[in-house]
Amino acid sequence: MKTHILLLLIFAIFIQNGQTAKILASVYSPSLSHQLAFRPIWHELASRGHDITLITTDPEENAPYKQIDTSYSYKIMEELGLGSIVSQQNSSKTSSFNTYINGLHKVSDYQFGTPEVEFLINNEKEKFDLLMLEVIYPGHMAFVDRFKAPFIGLVSLDAPPVIHRAVGNPTNPILYPDTVMPFTSNLTFKQRVVSFLANIGFYVFSTYFFYPNEDANVAKHFEGYTIRPLNDIQHDMDMLFINVNPVFHKLRPLGPNTIQIGGGTHLKEAKPLPKELEEYLNGSKNGVVYFSLGTNVKSNLLTDDLKETIIKTLGELPYDILWKYDEDITGLPKNIKVSKWIPQQDLFRHPQVKLFITQCGLQSVEEAILMNVPIVGMPFFGDQHKNAQIVLEKEIGLVVDRTNVKKEEFKEKIIKVIEDPKFKNNMKMIAKLMTDVEMTGLEKAVWWTEYVIRHKGAKHFKSYGTTDPFYTYFMLDVVCFVLLVLFIVFYVNWRILNFFVWLVFGRKKADVKKKTN
Fold it and tell me: Where is the signal peptide, in residue numbers (predicted)?
């Protein structure tokens, strides 16, 4: 009996010291890559005894935590034709952008309105010790005011300037262009102008349009609760986790409340390939080129011209082609094999895979680097253009412009990347640098999550100036004041100088004229 009591006391002390917490996590994005980036974190936290409730568009089978299924978000995006817009971009940019933003607003409205989320919002007994929320879309930050708990922001790529500013990180459109800008460093004058104007445009759009629209959704679904504007709530972020690795991404100054978890955090343990796929790879004479545009860009929705160029190019290569294609297709060259699903990480581990043709999504690029598979990039939207530019700068692959790609150019670049050993050698070097770290991205994410739990927040890491208006942050008011003072000083001096000139020369002329008269 005494032994049992002693064991219970030891267990109680262990639990107290471990401070297991009740965590509400939410990854709003109807995009599998956004969801996969954080799954290992949920699993590790759950294995350490934390009670997790996850709002997700991609619920996982047999997950060791509670999930709230919001997968209908994909249907909403599909009904708006966003798959075609992303894959083809054949409508005007303004029209596409408006449709996309409208889609995000509708998805947010739907997610808040699902029965389980509604119950979560309106259950007065529900409490959480920590919130972990994807912040690239602001709506779910309303949970911060609803549950009055510490708040960790999540971004599955690099954060936009509005989020970096919210946690006190320096932002500069010339030194650190927005993640959707297709350039990284050493900007030309034209690029600096574009980046500066885009930064202002994004700030105005998010502050005066996007966030207020989401505020309307919040007011609709959080009736009876006092919820501040989302633009104010984001400044309460205790920590920010960004899927960035300083070996791959450009260096930038970050506060201690911003944790870089990139570098393959989402990677799974190796598993055997399906038998049919294993036999296909082993039977390839010259090796295999793998072609996949990720989960958001659909190969079956590409424009006919681009699809024809791709098929002709791949058909002329002396390699076998494995193409992730989203539906059945006939009439392909003999060397092309299509599949709707391919275990990409395990595929990359096979020595017969010679090249990866990719849209340059961040997770895909990370996997290729860590498995030493060189790249030919074909970016479509978002951060893919910047990732493609980094691929070029790091010399781990080449890039083609999907809007103007020619068969011969495409073919030439594929063969060059496969045959020139520098691309694979650079991959190996970067992979070695990315993995030679004191803590993995997953270990950092878990440690800092439990740090926030232990201390009930991390406001002591917050930089000053996070709520300053745009004009004070960039010292525009100070610059204008200094220019005004200088103008007044120069103007007064100029008037005084004119007065003395008149005294010296003007009076002499007047005296001469008087004498003449």
Answer: 1-20
Question: Does 169 fall in a domain?
Answer: yes
User: Does residue 338 contact residue 326 with C-beta atoms inside 8 Å?
Assistant: no
Q: Are residues 230 and 155 both part of a single domain?
A: yes
- CA–CA separation, 458 vs 451, rounded Å? 8
Q: Is the pLDDT of residue 92 over 60?
A: no
Is residue 285 predicted with pLDDT exceeding 80? yes
The answer to whether the beta carbons of residues 319 and 286 sit under 8 Å apart is: yes
Give the max Cα distance, the chain: 129
Same domain, 260 and 128: yes
46 and 111 belong to one structural domain = yes
Q: Has residue 238 got a pLDDT over 50?
A: yes
Whole-Å CA distances, 261 to 220, 240, 258, 384: 35, 10, 10, 19
Query: Backbone phi, then psi, for 57, in 5-degree steps?
Result: -85, -10
Task: Tell whether 317 and 452 lie within a shared domain.
Answer: no
Calculate mean pLDDT across residues 399-424: 94
Overall average pLDDT of the 31-60 stretch: 95
More confident residue, 299 or 52: 52
Domain that holds residue 304: 275-435
Share of the chain above pLDDT 90, in %: 70
Calculate the alpha carbon distances from 366 to 156, 263, 363, 408, 427 in Å.
12, 6, 5, 28, 10
Answer whether residue 350 is part of any domain: yes
Q: Which residues pair with 494 in a beta bridge?
A: none
Residues 462 and 510 in one domain: no
Same domain, yes or no: 260 and 287: no
- Residue 175 region, left (φ>0) first, then alpha (ψ -120 to 50), else beta? alpha
The model's pLDDT over 162-184, given as tens digits with 9 standing for 90+, comes to 999 999 999 999 999 998 888 88
Mean pLDDT, residues 72-79: 89
Measured from the Cβ of residue 336, the count of other Cβ atoms closer than 10 Å reads 19
For residues 262 and 365, the answer to whether their CB atoms sit within 8 Å is no
Q: What is the number of domains present in the chain?
A: 3
What is the C-alpha to C-alpha distance for residues 133 and 121, in angstroms, rounded to an integer? 15
Same domain, 228 and 254: yes
Q: In what order do the strands lie in the sheet with 22-27?
A: 66-69, 51-56, 22-27, 130-134, 151-155, 239-242, 258-260
Q: Which of 300-309, 442-451, 507-516 has the lowest mean pLDDT?
A: 507-516
The reply to whether 112 and 155 lie within a common domain is yes
Average of per-residue pLDDT across 119-123: 95
* Cβ neighbours of residue 123 closer than 8 Å, sequence gap 6 or more: none
